[in-house]
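Each field is set out underneath.
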Amino acid sequence: MQDKLNVIKHQGFQVVIGGLDRPTVFRYRVDEYRVWHEGVPRKVEVWHQPTLRLNVRVSRVDVESGTWDATLWP
């Protein structure tokens, strides 16, 4: 696995993550919430990929637009 994950495609019903051994589709959104960081809302979603037993947390600074960040999530 590479150190840096990236969101290739976010469609609302699934997310495609790059930076693993190959691009991986996560189809099960298990949680969604918003956090406030320095007065700015941040949208956060946790997605699950059952075959690989992986969870990934994707978030973006602007709730409605902006680029997504991705990290592996325990």
The two ends are 16 Å apart (CA to CA). Residues 39 and 62 are 12 Å apart (CA to CA).
